[in-house]
Every structure is written in C-alpha cells, then in structure tokens.
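Recall the central idea of this unit: under ordinary conditions, the amino acid sequence of a chain determines the structure it adopts. In this exercise we apply that idea directly, starting from the sequence alone.
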Amino acid sequence: MENIQTVTDEFLCNLAEHYVLKKYAPGEMIYSWEESHDTTNQIAEDYIDSCKVVNAKVTERNDEIQEYAVEVTTDIIIITEGNSDDNEAKNLEKIVIQCEIAADFLTKELFVENAYEDG
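Accordingly, the structure predicted from this sequence is:
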C-alpha cells in the first residue's frame, strides 16, 4: 500500500488563502449582469481595490484520496466606476469562497482544483 502523507489544516488553509489572494488581487475585474427596465441589459465592470482574508477553515478532508475543502472568508473592496471619477464608488463586501483542493495524479502535489463563491 502506498504511503500517504497527512497534511495539516494550516498547510491547506495557507494554500487556499494564497490562491484567493492571487485570484482576487487588486486591479482584477469583476463582471456582473445588470438587468434594466428598458431591456438594455448590460454587463457591469467593477474592479477590486483590495482583498483581505478574514478567516480560513478546513471544512472537508479525505487524507486517503487527498481531497480537501477549505472555506475562505474575505473582505473585498470593490470599485464601481461611473462615467467620471466623481461617480466612482467603493463597496466593502464579505465574500466566502469555497476552495476544493486535490493532489496532482503524477506528482502528488496539492493544488486548488476548483474555487467558487458561496451563496
């Protein structure tokens, strides 16, 4: 039987936090669909001003097959741009991101396989 290395919660949380901070880095664009009453629906382009990890915790772990889930809670400041700098607005949003971590089949190195916003 293959020797399976046990991974600490701290390692898994650090891996997920690093992924989230890279994905939600300042300057990254966020797209959202805005519905309008006059049937001119449009995609809004907002930008991330800052991202801070508030908490990270392992929610699922299976050491035998090396699959894990980590919940990362963040405070993200989003800049919504208007027609001029005067219309720019900053909004603080608490976003919870679920990170699914797995081991590479060949190298056995752990990586974030999938991440999605919860809710």
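Residues 12 and 70 are 7 Å apart (CA to CA).
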